[in-house]
Amino acid sequence: MKKFLNEPNNFVDEMLEGIYKAHPAVTYAADDKRCLVTSKVKAGKVGIATGGGSGHLPLFLGYVGDGMLDGAAVGGVFQSPSAEQMYQVTRHIDQGAGVLYIFGNYSGDIINFDMAAELADLDGIQVRQVVGNDDVASSVVGEEHKRRGVAGIFFVYKAAGAAAAEGLSLDEVTRLADKARLRTRTMGVALSSCVVPEIGHATFSIGEDEMEIGMGIHGEPGISRKKLAPADKVIDEMMERIFAEQDYKRGDDVAVLVNGLGGTPMEELYILFRRVSQLLEERGVTARHVWVGEFATSMEMAGASVSILHLDEELDRLVSAPANTPFFKHLAG
Amino acid sequence: MDRITASDIIRLFEAWKALFAQQREFLISLDGKVGDSDLGITMSKSFAAAAEALEVEGEAAGISKLLRTAGATMARTAPSTMGTLTATGFLRASKAVEGRDALGTADIAAFWRAFRDGVAERGKAKVGDKTLLDVLDPIAVTLEAQAAVGASLAQALAATSAAAEQALEATKSMLAQHGKAAAFQEKTIGLQDAGATVGYFLIRRMAEFVAEA
């Protein structure tokens, strides 16, 4: 393992100390660094909270800011934060309009967010939940509730954050977040493993010349492991699965997110996007919004994912809205 | 005693606190065989915190509020799966006995029914999955049957404690489906489930508590 570390046990807290110094727009609640919240809670607005394990920056905390989220509970590397931390974030960001939780479909996160919602309910805070499950590879059609949440949660944050910034009600923000969730699909591919600092060695092994299609962002097994193919072939296989999920008609609009998992150069991500864009053009589908970069990583894992949000008029409006967070800045349009 | 009052609830949590302090090492070793051995720590910490919180709150708060404080305190002190499940159980029990100033057999049946349903919902386990639910389910069912035949609280709890002991024994032959134990699969056969053991301890101590008074 070759990492910049002081004490492996302090990995998350030292990272957070850096975050707070670098980004005064975020701070923490309840005297707990792992309860990250926006420095300027907006009166009357529906609050949006997320949370999950560390090791995925910019996910999750990187999207706390204007037009996106209001708070994020931060767990250890690949570990859920506690219900208490989620509850403290909830209390801090609630402005009387209620709070929406958006998080990925992992059992530890679910149990703790449920518990936090129950504690918030005792305080009279209304809480709703939208659970990201965009990873096509993690379960078949008809068993979507078993699918993991991966990079596509970015689109759910974007839609919900913009809706809340417009001043919509908790029910309406929840409806729009859920619509973005239902219309988002992601496929990933891994080329190398990640290393959890406190463990100190690779989570799994994969041959020099191999790739694993559909691997999860914690190294969960994917659909198939095989010899690494040319970039266009890899994208063809991934996009075929995404296209099979929804009825994309000629003239439809989509938003595209090509996401690096932490150890893949930007150049390669653009080579992947090039092929994604060719396939969309062949179908007469327009990529109205394109983001290429790192949005949801898995430590130093080499690999990438492609997320497609099937837009409609209102989702396009929300995705277009401005945002300003430590890791994501977007001008209107 | 034939009814549990608010002041009894405070003393019952004291008794549970002492029990889990005493069983801490036993639970650590039981859980350590197939889990991450934090169960003994979780339970002793969370019941100690809950008992202290109830002491501070006092009997004037009433039974429902005391149970709610216990659940909320446990949720905040023990952020592990078992801590969360137990906390949920007490929060749901709190709602089930809202407005009661003393709990008779039917109320205790409602208490454990709500506790059982809360744990089932939160943990997403089914009966037979080798979890806490495998003891909670017979507890709720037995208490309801006892209430239906008009049993006294002491009789009902004694019968329920015996049913829970059998149910715990039955978890030995089950295959773990949830949590870290699920990874051990066949190796869990022959071992009683650690979470179910906690459920049995809870009802046994409640039965003893009622019989003692």
From TrEMBL, chain A:
- Tell me which UniProt keywords the record has, alphabetically: ATP-binding, Kinase, Nucleotide-binding, Transferase
In short, the EC number is 2.7.1.-
Extract the GO molecular function terms from the UniProt entry: ATP binding; glycerone kinase activity
Output the Gene Ontology cellular-component terms.
Answer: cytosol
Name the domain of life: Bacteria
Q: Any one Gene Ontology biological process term?
A: glycerol catabolic process
Q: What class of enzyme is it?
A: transferase
UniProt key word Transferase: yes
Ranges for domain DhaK come to 7-328
Task: Tell me the InterPro entries matching this sequence.
Answer: DhaK_dom, Dihydroxyacetone_Kinase
SUPFAM superfamilies of this UniProt entry? DAK1/DegV-like
Q: What is this protein called?
A: Dihydroxyacetone kinase-like protein
Origin organism is: Mycoplana azooxidifex
UniProtKB/TrEMBL annotation, chain B:
Q: Which residues form the DhaL domain?
A: 7-208
Q: Which keywords does this Swiss-Prot/TrEMBL entry list?
A: Kinase, Transferase
**Record-level GO cellular component terms:** cytosol
Q: Name one Pfam family in it.
A: Dak2
Top enzyme class: transferase
* GO-annotated biological processes: glycerol catabolic process
In its UniProt entry, what is this protein called?
A: Dihydroxyacetone kinase-like protein
Protein species of origin: Mycoplana azooxidifex
